[in-house]
Amino acid sequence: MDGGGERESTKHEVEAEYHCHDFDWEDLRADVEASPSFSYHLCPFPTTTTTTTDAPAAPPSEAWKSFHRRHASGKFFKERRYLLKEFPELLNSKECAKVLEVGCGNGSTVVSILRCSPSITVYACDCSEDTLQKANEIVFNTQGVDAKDRFHPFLLDVSKEAFPDWLFCNWCQSSGAKAVDLSLDSGHHNIRNEQPIVLKENQCCIHGIDVITMIFTLSAIPYDIMLATLRWCVYVLKPGGLVLFRDYGIYDMTMLRFLPHQRVGFREYIRADGTFSLDTVRELFDAAGLLELELEYCCVRSVNRKNGKNMRRVWVHGKFQKPTS
Questions:
Q1: Is the predicted pLDDT of residue 186 greater than 60, yes or no?
Q2: Which helix (DSSP H) or strand (DSSP E) does residue 14 occupy?
């Protein structure tokens, strides 16, 4: 599917097409579960004993680094203008709002956020240094976007490392709401302590994040690490702050096109992507200590312009909030 066009009407179509309900998810579910060709997606993933001849699986972060290297031209991703319709909170954010983009890729989300409000500052992390360099190039060269002093990318593998203390230090957290207890998650994530150039002299941290965006990021993390990762996100979020979430939903086209040999887990596939049900997302975010504001399937019918194939896309759309006390 094309990411947009130069005509104004096409631009508005692209902005709107990702936030609609073209079909009922329950109808799609019935079709998939009634089709024998899709039955392997619904079966529990078999557990096998690893032998000495088995090659160790590459970490998810390595798979994504390789993915971004293959698409280094930046043409693969398009600016995600639809996010402003999905999440109008970005348009209505307060003065000097701080946004953290988790897994920023080449900046397709960052550009839309910076464009929507001149008072927003975006901090963006990714596991690939090459990808961050590409994002920096794209963001600073996008016409109509003033990124000076407003875009701060930094290297971090969110599946392995905790967010650095300069985002929201312990002292500043203790002076506000109760700090998040991360003692159970310390084994999954290492701590990064280097100080960035974004801090002013004698400044301990940026005093927390107002909005975190997780756009097609959580599905790239192994399920057993997802909760720990979400808790670290909550840790750097201000009380009352938001997590804006979008990811692949169960029975999305990308799930159904994977073949049996590409399964690496239940609803997990060789590209390191997983798919979510609403119940799974609800349980994860609740366990991380976040309040559910919105959670639904976004079901979009689109047509591949090259081959005319009709595609039923399913994404999970969610908004969650950190309690104020």
A1: no
A2: helix 8-17
Q: Average pLDDT of the chain?
A: 79
Q: Which two tokens stand for residue 41?
A: 């997606």
Report the distance separating Cα 262 and Cα 62, nearest Å: 17
Among 16-20, 43-47, 137-141, name the most confident range.
Answer: 137-141
On the 0-12 / 13-18 / 19+ scale of CB atoms within 10 A, 71 is: middle
CA terminus-to-terminus distance, the chain = 44
DSSP string, 257-323: TS-GGGEEETTEETTS-B-B-HHHHHHHHHHTTPEEEEEEEEEEEEE-TTT--EEEEEEEEEEEE--
Q: What is the pLDDT of residue 188?
A: 57
Please tell me the pTM assigned to this model: 0.81
φ/ψ of residue 302, rounded to 5: -130, 165
| DSSP run (H or E) holding 158 | none
d(CA 6, CA 28) in angstroms, rounded, equals 33
d(CA 152, CA 207) in angstroms, rounded, equals 15
Give the per-residue SS3 of 171-238: HHHHCCCCCCCCHHHCCCCEECCCCCCCCCCCCCCCCCEEEEEEECCHHHCCHHHHHHHHHHHHHHEE
**Residue 82 predicted with pLDDT over 90:** no
Residue 39: phi and psi, rounded to 5, are -65, -30
> What number of other Cβ atoms are within 10 A of residue 250's Cβ?
23
HSE-CB of 189 using CA atoms within 13 angstroms: 27
